[in-house]
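Consider the record:
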Amino acid sequence: MKIMLIGSGGREHALAWKLAQSKKVTTIYVVPGNAGTEMISKCCNVNLFTNENLVNFAKDNHIDLTIVGPENLLVEGIVNLFKQNKLDIIGPSQKAAQLEGNKTYAKQFMERFKIPTAKFKVFSEPHSALAYLENTTTFPVVVKANGLAAGKGVVICKNLKAARETITDFMIDHSLKDAGNSIVMEEFFSGVETSIICITDGKTMVPLVSAQDHKTIHEHGVGLNTGGMGAVCPNPHVNQKVMDDFTKHIMIPTLNGIKQSKLDFHGFLFFGIMITNNGCKCLEYNVRMGDPECQSIVPLMNFDLVALFQTVIKNQLHTFKFLWKKGTAINIVLASNGYPKNYKIGYQINIQHQPLVFFANTIIKENKLLTNGGRVLSVVAVGKSVKDAYVKVYKEIKNINFKRMYFRKDIGLN
């Protein structure tokens, strides 16, 4: 088989690494890929700049399956375009992708299908949002950019001052560009957050192993939100009782909603869940693999990922047997100091030996591996327990360095 994998982050490197292990695969074209995917023997990085280029490349090179990593292409409708050209592709249709691309659509979907979630209000004008705040006495309040914001569009505002600043930042200063033109304000839930990523063929939905993401830049949930600074998989707070609650009250109603709304969905559906004293609450949907959750989930897969995707394409997901390795996987993101705001790039990355590393914002120039963005790479370790994986992964980090390297030191401690 020939596969095309679209994306350039750590998530795509992890997927490429796993796909390349399949005996079914001869070549993986990664668009545009990164320094990590370039190092995989079955992979070939390709620069293609438009959806039309992608379609033509798939046709000309007889691509058997395309997998889409980033959300923006899904929201723009790349799946529709590929299917119109009779090309197999993993991902939701443009309409289904609104579950991530439009927070208002997602919240109304949850409301319509009685999926437990936070009470919310939508604002398209900053003055009305600010006026609402003046009459709100319950804090914290959660402010969400309505559009795609690369994981940086959710802020928990502990007081009126913080909420005003966030609304000004999103809606007036346009720090997230068009994503913050409208916002969703919702009630705050106390509890433990977990990521549960499922795969679906539109008829059947199956949860993968849960993961615990760490969004803030600093330890212990302090600082600005990022795209994710690391993950623990499975989430140690997710037991069978939690999974049963999630399955009955969130996953199954969501699948029923997808069916009733006639959404074409063949791919990953990410559930952001808060485990509260009153059961699981659905915070958000993403319509693709999480990043950095993917980097911890993939190493625990004890099955052929290509075979899984084939059953999804054929609407036969119910026949697939999922096998998982025992233990815990932890990945730690090594970032450029200053991320998620101001940081410098172009520093040489030195790796003493070859631990399990998934590259993100990296580039090779003049045979040197260089930093090329905020989140540079993920270091991954699998252990018998959370403690074992924690010790292993931080030991591995000692073998990697680049100028102004930054990482959290508490991932796996909580």
